Structures are given as structure tokens and as C-alpha cells.
Amino acid sequence: MNDWNEIYNTSKEWILEAGDYIREKMKSSINVSSKANQNDLVTDVDKAVEEFFIEKLKDKYPTHRLMGEEGSAELISNLNGTVWILDPIDGTVNFVHQECFFAVSLGIYHEGVGMVGFIYDVMKDELFTALKGHGAYVNGKKLDTVSNVSLQESILSVNVGWILEDRRLEYFVKEARGFRSYGSAALEIAYVAAGRLEAYISFALHPWDIAGGAVILKEVGGIVSNYEGRELTYLNKDTFIAANPAIHELLMDKLHN
Q1: In the Enzyme Commission scheme, what number(s) does this protein have (predicted)?
Q2: Fold that domain 4-142 belongs to in CATH
Q3: Cα separation, 84 vs 14, whole angstroms
Q4: Domain 151-256: which topology?
Q5: From CA 214, how far away is CA 234, in angstroms rounded?
Q6: Beta strand pairing call for 126-131 and 113-121
Q7: pLDDT, tens digit, for every residue of 53-93?
């Protein structure tokens, strides 16, 4: 049987160790290549961080499996048992071009239920954490339950391309106080949990983009779903909404009526 407090503490140590490695690697040259298209970047640092977690799991938790962005996800077709869902660097374009606004994102799921979540903003040294049933924290300070802020007082996060793609979002552009796009899904979900944003909306995200953030946001009363309002499977690419309950309800209404 899993000792979740022990797993939480161990994975936290590994997240921070990965952050130290990333900061050290940034002092030297980084090898960058593209995957599906020229904007889908991967670096040797992404791959090394994922390999770091693979090796750690083999040694410490050999029955656990890893679903990672840089190759290991191909081996995962279900969430039976305990699965670590990892994005070694979420926001690789930011990492390469700006050296900020990227994060290590980790969600640990048991029989499909999110038990542990981490989002580590490496350059700000800001660590968002959650253990199911114990609340969510940022650098050890407990986060409050998300407030049902009205749309007119809300800051929402969405890629400009999605607004052009789905004209139903124009209502929110006109009515919300402001829009942002940070280029890291993990951080944007963390910001919803921390009350810095009221919602984050995306057309297409992979499980590793959102798994850690979903655990954190649920611990403070936020809602995560796909565009149809259904629960996510964390097995396939899907549309995604993270929001406080009031904005989530409004999004569902405007997107489907």
C-alpha cells in the first residue's frame, strides 16, 4: 500500500533537485530541436529531467509507472496502479527564448485519481504543491479556496489563436477585465489555484500539461474539465478549462447555448 505522505515528500525532493539541474544547465549551451512542427521544441534538458525521474522510480518505486512528454508516454495506455504524469519542462519555448515562465509539472495518480500535484516555477523558485485531502500550498503557504469572482472582475488566460479559432470566446474578451497568455499551461493552472487568474482555457493539451495542476486546483475548490464539461481521462489530448466554479458555469453556458 502506498504511503502518500512519504511519496509526497520524496517527489518534492526530486522536483527541487530537477530544478537545480535545470538552472545549472542553463549556464552552458543547450541543444534544441523540434518535434511535430517548428514551434514544438524539445531540448536535451527536457530529456535529461525525464530520464532522471525514470531512474529514480526504478530504484525507489519499481511498481510505479511514468507517463512523460519525452517518450515514456507511449508506454502508458491506462492509469491502473500508480502513474507519475510528468512534463519535465512545461513551456519549452519560453525556456529556450526567454529563460523564464516555464515549470516542472508532476501529477501522481492512483487508479486514475490524482493524489499528488507539483508545479515548480524554476526561475522564480515558486513551488505549488498539493496532497489530496490536505489542501494546496505555494512555497509552504496554504492557498485559500478560490473565490467566485465575477467575469467583469476576472483575468482570464487563453492563447490568442484559440480566440480566433472559436468566436464564442469573443463574449469573454469583451466582458472580462483582462486576458493573459503566459505560454505554460502548468503555470496558468497554478495561477488559477492561487487566485491570480479566474480561468485558463485551451483547445488542445496533453495529460502531462495538466495532471499536476488539476490536483492542485481541485484542492482549492476549482474545477477542471474539457469543453463539454466532462472529466478528463489523462490519457489523451483534450480541450481544457480550469476555472473557479462561477466562471466555469458561465463558460459552459456560453459554449453550449
Answers
A1: 3.1.3.25
A2: Fructose-1,6-Bisphosphatase; Chain A, domain 1 (3.30.540)
A3: 12
A4: D-Maltodextrin-Binding Protein; domain 2 (3.40.190)
A5: 10
A6: antiparallel
A7: 999 999 999 999 999 977 665 568 899 999 999 999 999 88
